[in-house]
Write a sequence for this structure.
């Protein structure tokens, strides 16, 4: 049993959808080649059966030769055994190829989504990403799955044409001319199908995005009475998707109808011509039976051609969506190579903020957007003049590992609770227990269990519980620099006081920045910087700033009032 997914999916060729599908094929070339070989063996064993049956009739039944009949029957039995074994093995490899292509695509898409970080939602809607993960990977897998049967179909048609040319050149020419004509007749149906399929996928992606937004903001919509309005809009958009789906289905049905009608016409022609030749004595009764069996057999390979065209068309559309995602570059790619010796000071030249290493620094801003902008620059989610140990932050290697920015928009991952809170590579029990205690999240774990399954985005938890769990996850990562943006805004005053008292000792020796206006947190900070109009205008201890800076006092008083029940 082979393990899926693979550890390293490789570097995809995303210059075009065709190149991406070719890269997938090369990445699993051995299994694809084995599947194609078994597909050829499976289909070829079926293609030889009518010829064997014809020989058995002519040399055994018509000639009344029991030995010849027994010999050809044994050959037929052997072909049946080969067909059975090769068919089962081919199917297993086809399923493996499907799964491998799908999982490999999921891996490269997930890796790219992680690499893009905050760039992804700015460049691609959530619905499009969901569509890639749900439907597009399946269609891409179908393209690899059809290779085995498609290869067998090609070889089978060539073999049948060769046998018929050898037996009756006229019938062989009918097949050789008829098959290309069928393919040419079906080709014009592929372009509108491709176009409509692509349009349908785009609309589905948009609808998924709106559905995600609706679910996320459902409570707000109900509170402002907008639920009905947005439900009507969603209904109208879903009807657009339905109409596009019907148009796609109409094009697909025409293609499916052609898969049956056109091969059926060829079968009728071959049968009619063969019957005329048998009546004129140009071919034997056994050959007539063989030709009729071939005419019926050809329906399968020719229909496989149509199925392959449909699946490859869908896969090409899906690969195009994957390629568009893979083409996106991070707004601020990590290209730095410098490695400052830690612990090092972090300086935001734009605001004048200096974050001393190993201390808990609080940023209180008159406008919360200023604090968020500073946090974005410190984590290099926005470009700016920031120095880390005297080195421009853009030149520092592994910024994402050294500086972690945690905001309230971060999502909880689904899966076992404590496992979903652990950083990449995991965390020991002591580290996780310490993080949970600092974030006052021990009661959450105790109430639901450490291995309790977390639903998507942690919907089963309240806003305050989700905030504490996000804080625990950030603390468990134990980065060199931790930047927290309003980490206690959704918890009650008693819990906030406990978190404020535990945060400094838990992060002792590490650099911590907290953007907040909570007096409970500010009072426990080693250093407080007050920001107004994007600049640090005052700094010092919390109590000193209360007496010395009236604007600071006004901001903190509002924060304190908001914290009261």
């Amino acid at each position: 049993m082979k393990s899926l997914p693979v550890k390293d999916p490789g570097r995809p060729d995303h210059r075009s959808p065709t190149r991406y599908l070719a890269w997938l094929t090369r990445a699993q070339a051995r299994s694809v080649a084995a599947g194609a070989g078994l597909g050829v063996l499976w289909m070829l064993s079926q293609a030889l059966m009518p010829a064997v049956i014809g020989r058995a009739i002519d040399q055994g039944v018509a000639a009344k030769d029991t030995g010849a009949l027994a010999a050809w029957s044994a050959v037929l039995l052997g072909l049946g055994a080969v067909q059975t074994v090769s068919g089962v093995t081919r199917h297993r490899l086809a399923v493996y190829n499907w799964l491998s292509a799908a999982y490999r695509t999921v891996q490269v898409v997930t890796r790219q989504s992680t690499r893009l970080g905050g760039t992804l939602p700015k460049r691609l809607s959530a619905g499009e990403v969901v569509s890639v993960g749900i439907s597009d990977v399946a269609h891409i897998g179908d393209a690899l799955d059809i290779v085995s049967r498609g290869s067998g179909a090609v070889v089978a048609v060539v073999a049948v044409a060769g046998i018929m040319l050898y037996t009756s050149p006229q019938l062989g020419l009918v097949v050789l001319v008829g098959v290309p004509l069928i393919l040419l007749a079906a080709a014009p149906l592929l372009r509108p199908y491709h176009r409509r399929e692509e349009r349908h996928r785009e609309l589905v992606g948009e609808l998924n995005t709106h559905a995600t937004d609706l679910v996320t903001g459902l409570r707000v919509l109900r509170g402002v009475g907008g639920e009905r309005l947005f439900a009507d809009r969603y209904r109208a958009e879903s009807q657009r998707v339905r109409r596009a789906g019907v148009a796609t289905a109409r094009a697909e049905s025409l293609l499916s109808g052609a898969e049956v009608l056109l091969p059926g016409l060829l079968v009728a022609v071959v049968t009619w011509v063969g019957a005329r030749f048998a009546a004129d004595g140009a071919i034997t009764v056994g050959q007539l039976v063989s030709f009729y069996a071939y005419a019926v057999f050809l329906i399968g390979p020719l229909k496989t051609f149509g199925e392959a065209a449909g699946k490859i068309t869908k896969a090409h559309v899906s690969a195009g969506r994957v390629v568009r995602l893979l083409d996106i570059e991070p707004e601020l790619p990590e290209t730095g190579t410098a490695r400052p010796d830690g612990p090092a000071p972090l300086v935001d030249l734009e605001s004048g903020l200096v974050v001393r290493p190993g201390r808990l620094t609080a940023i209180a801003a008159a406008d919360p957007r200023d604090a968020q902008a500073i946090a974005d620059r410190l984590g290099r989610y926005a470009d700016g003049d920031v120095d880390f140990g005297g080195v421009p932050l853009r030149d520092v290697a592994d910024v994402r590992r050294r500086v972690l920015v945690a905001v309230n928009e971060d999502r909880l991952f689904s899966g076992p609770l404590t496992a979903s809170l652990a950083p990449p590579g995991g965390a020991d029990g002591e580290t996780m227990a310490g993080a949970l205690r600092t974030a006052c999240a021990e009661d959450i774990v105790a109430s639901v269990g450490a291995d309790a399954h977390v639903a998507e985005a942690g919907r089963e938890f309240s806003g305050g519980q989700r905030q504490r769990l996000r804080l625990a996850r950030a603390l468990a990562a134990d980065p060199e620099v931790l930047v927290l943006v309003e980490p206690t805004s959704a918890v009650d005053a008693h819990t906030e006081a406990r978190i404020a008292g535990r945060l400094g000792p838990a992060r002792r020796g590490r650099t911590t920045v907290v953007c907040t206006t909570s007096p409970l947190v500010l009072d426990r900070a080693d250093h407080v910087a007050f920001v107004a109009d994007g600049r640090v205008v005052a700094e010092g201890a919390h109590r000193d700033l209360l007496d010395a800076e009236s604007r600071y006092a006004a901001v903190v008083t509002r924060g304190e009032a908001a914290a009261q029940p």
Observations:
- The chain has two domains: 17-327, 346-563.
- The CA atoms of residues 277 and 435 lie 86 Å apart.
